[in-house]
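Example 3.2
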Amino acid sequence: MQSASPILIDLQLAFTEPAFTGKEASGLPTAEDFQRWAQAALQEAGHDPAQAVEITVRLVDAEESQTLNREYRDKDKPTNVLSFPSELPDFLREQLDELPLGDLVICVPVVAAEAVEQGKAERDHWAHLTIHGVLHLLGYDHIDDEEAEVMEGKEITALHDLGIANPYE
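Structure, written as tokens:
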């Protein structure tokens, strides 16, 4: 069995809402959590385990999420996760020791609110959204029903491997 490739997580805490700063921020996932969740997504997607990857995870407030969602998706509201795949040309990617997959922007208050609304453990919701975002970075999408079925199947399996229930039930 091959060992998993290193996953370098650049974790950026970029929120300013008082409820999510200081002492309260200590309950947020760590870079190690994001590494574990990203590994589950990479494994399920069939990523070459010998290839090290780098992912930036930026935790933001509702204002930054809404600004980015409006600018890149024409939706004027905050959202749970936005994925920005790396757009490096293949010839550059082949020269790097770590493959830059891209950036995930996750909105802290939206994740917390959704977990409560959906009756899910917040940590499980973080795991789901991270796996969902990493799959987007790898090129998966859910624009049509067939794509959604494939992507959701990979999410469900990756979460199951982590001991987390199907988020779609």
